[in-house]
Automatic annotation (TrEMBL):
Purpose: Phospholipase that may play a role in phospholipids remodeling. May selectively cleave myristate (C14)-containing phosphatidylcholines through its predominant phospholipase 1 activity, cleaving preferentially acyl groups in sn1 position. In parallel, may have a minor phospholipase 2 activity acting on acyl groups in position sn2. In addition to (C14)-containing phosphatidylcholines, may also act on other medium-chain-containing and oxidatively truncated phospholipids.
Keywords: Hydrolase, Lipid metabolism, Membrane, Phospholipid metabolism, Serine esterase, Signal-anchor, Transmembrane, Transmembrane helix
PROSITE patterns: UPF0017 (PS01133)
Membrane topology, from the record: Single-pass type II membrane protein
GO MF, one example: phospholipase A2 activity
GO biological process, any: medium-chain fatty acid biosynthetic process
InterPro entries, per the entry: AB_hydrolase_1, AB_hydrolase_4_CS, AB_hydrolase_4_sf, AB_hydrolase_fold, ABHD4
Protein name: Phospholipase ABHD3
UniProt xrefs under SUPFAM superfamilies: alpha/beta-Hydrolases (SSF53474)
Record: active site: 215, 341, 370
Pfam family name, one: Abhydrolase_1
Localization, UniProt: Membrane
Reactions performed catalytically: 1-octadecanoyl-2-hexanoyl-sn-glycero-3-phosphocholine + H2O = hexanoate + 1-octadecanoyl-sn-glycero-3-phosphocholine + H(+); 1-tetradecanoyl-2-(9Z,12Z-octadecadienoyl)-sn-glycero-3-phosphocholine + H2O = 1-tetradecanoyl-sn-glycero-3-phosphocholine + (9Z,12Z)-octadecadienoate + H(+); 1-O-hexadecyl-2-nonadioyl-sn-glycero-3-phosphocholine + H2O = nonanedioate + 1-O-hexadecyl-sn-glycero-3-phosphocholine + H(+); 1-hexadecanoyl-2-(9-oxononanoyl)-sn-glycero-3-phosphocholine + H2O = 9-oxononanoate + 1-hexadecanoyl-sn-glycero-3-phosphocholine + H(+)
Native source organism of the sequence: Calidris pygmaea (Spoon-billed sandpiper)
Amino acid sequence: MDWQVLTRELSLYLENQVRVGLFGSGVGLSLVLGFGVAYACYYLSSIAKKPQLVASNDRFCRFLEEYCPVVTETYYPTIWCWEGRVQTLLRPFITSRPQVQYRNELIKTADGGQISLDWFDNNDSLYYPDASTRPTVLLLPGLTGTSKESYILHMIHQSETLGYRCVVFNNRGIAGEDLLTPRTYCAANTEDLEAVIHHVHSLHPSAPFMAAGVSMGGMLLLNYLGKTGRDTPLMAAAIFSAGWNVFESVESLEKPLNWLLFNYYLTTCLQSSISRHRQMLEKLFDMDLVMKARTVREFDKQFTSVMFGYRTIDDYYEDASPCRKLKSVGIPVLCLNSVDDVFSPGHAIPVETAKQNANVALVLTSCGGHIGFLEGIWPRKCTYMDRVFKQFVQAMFEHGNKIFSM
């Protein structure tokens, strides 16, 4: 929306409220209009900005500008909740939850465990009626997220309109299935993701195949891509609100306000996710000690790092940080972050490293928080993140062969 139009509409709205007796006298009208215009000017000059597009490859940039233009357009955060923490907190409550009918599949792992996959087959696809060649998007939710998260449902809704098939990778023990072995998941170990990608590709070898990861799901996907390079059936990937440097992420989350708003709640979610598997896990862990954790760092120290054999929690955090593997990514990857995300602080985003890999493009907004990216006066149906996802997957599936020929 043009900023002059926004300012004019805001002024007319406030004037109308005064006329119906909300604010009273003409003096009140002047004050309200003055404040409204001042706020609108501040918003348009300091809040609403074009994202920063970081990419060393000019051809990748031109490809995004032509086929994914949303990454070059001004992002207008919701005018009444643009601050990062507020966006993060409100998104789960404000955004709608599109109805999605899943088909569940449990696959076995090499160690005797099982993984729950939720499929949206999109058998009514008009654009791709042949299931064998229907483009497929693998979706990876966040730390304790599942296929029921609103951001996952919105991605599936966007994919449905384009005719694509989706499959959601639920981490072990999260989606209601039993743990068959005393093992869950972490951001560094990519074995389960490798098994899922191999399984999905083996079912539809002729279908174009992409992946999108959110938060920890994005970290896991980046670590997988850094490990495999070009040796993957994925043609491209989209990453949203990934924590690039785990050390910086946990330090940010341990600041008093962030601990109160996010860290303690996230820790309780982690504890809740494993409590139903206590009988299986207490064979190897002091579950009473794990349940006493009050921060994510304490939980990872007592549980996650021990489960996956790390000598110290620092060893785990170093291995889990995608910034250390970004140079090795061998397929086109678009990464969206907000610099006001307390889960992934702006100063920890590896801008210089991204510039050294022609396959990587970063899109950095000034506002948006963690998986927020709310826009519009009442941001219920679609976020900026949803639009980036839709345009990028469509660009890659339908024009991906042009990415390095432009």
